[in-house]
Amino acid sequence: MIPDLPLTAEDVAEIAEILAQSGYRELDLATRRFRLRVARAGDGSAEGTTQEWQWAGDAPAVAEAAGAEAVADPDVIASPLPGTFYHAPQPGAPPFVAVGDAVTADTVVGIVETMKLMNPVHAGRAGTVAAVLAANGALVAKGAPLVRLS
Q1: Keywords, A to Z (predicted)?
Q2: 19 occurs within a structural domain
């Protein structure tokens, strides 16, 4: 599983707001562990910012390992794409699923936000939620395990 990014979603939002109020158009922050790029739109508002991140160095190996784990365990619901995983449709709302909940193939178990798009993650099969494997707000790779069914 990918280690947590040392910045929270709130940190990135605050960086975007600072950028919007500055004279700069973009910020490119690179460390040994990750790279974060935040750019503002032509109107200069924080609403028009874009952001992208990537893991430095071993990102492909981590993503491959996460994908291999998901494929090896048919009870795991894996992330269909990289992004930020959320358990609930909005802050303060109840989670989509909790341990012990019965799900069908069409049940939404979470959302993965990628490039400001909210992508629902469906269970894909019937079962009972045994564990929620990814933390709320965690950055996940494609194929990373999100939820385990029994």
Answers
A1: Biotin, Fatty acid biosynthesis, Fatty acid metabolism, Lipid biosynthesis, Lipid metabolism
A2: yes
